[in-house]
Structure prediction request, 300 residues.
Amino acid sequence: MAITAALVKELRERTGAGMMECKQALVESDGDLEAAIEAMRKSGQAKAAKKAGRIAADGVVVIAVAGDAKATDAKKGVMVEVNCETDFVAKDGGFTDFAERVAACALASDAGDVQALETEPLAGGEATSIAQARADLVAKIGENIQLRRLVRFDDLEGELYSYRHGVRIGVLVEIEGGNPTLGKDIAMHIAATNPLCVSADEVPAATLEKEKEIFRAQALESGKPEPIVEKIVAGRVRKYLEEVTLLGQAFVKDPDVTVQKLLTQAGAKVVRFARIEVGEGIEKKQENFADEVRAQVRGD
Prediction:
């Protein structure tokens, strides 16, 4: 069967692949468009598996909230982290569109984690699963792409507020009482200070005990008597809890006021929050630009 330009064009539009790759797939399938698409998808899955071990520490955080755009009557919200290898791809329109559609799908579904989410059809009326769309995008872009984290807030007791700083930091916070201005301020504060939890009683016992051991060892090195050492440790623990808990922190817009005091004045209470920063906890491999280009050319 003759491979026409129109057939190649249609395959490109349906797969997003390059012209030569489309032409080759059509030649191998003897002009059968559906067979060519299936073969290219299988090839894409193989490429995705090959690249799956590569470090993907860049990317975007996307937030989707059901309700008013300002989240003043939001009933639920989700936040997803979608990773890639470089900031160049993180700005690519195809990648960002994929991430936005993943977030929309997460909001519309009941998926509780990324494994469940990947089995859902990608938002936008397509039957293609998120996992398959991700594999296709890996084949097209040439980088490892991963859905790393999904946070969802359902069954709200209060109002839901959100904030995204650029594309790399996202925050969801549920607050009882207060108002939208306070909600936005608290969300921005969380983005800036990255608290460990809401209050001191939520700090994990193991984490607190580890900090106490460090403070005690530091105090003992000073040669002070044991009773003094215990007072020093107690003081440092109080300071630590102020620094890592949302309620104990000084409000970023007015350091003379703690977040606890700010909330009390507004008759409000933070029920819960979640903060995601792209790539946190991932050790990013350092490569120079020339090495990255050579790796792309080789198809590594």
Observations:
- The two ends are 34 Å apart (CA to CA).
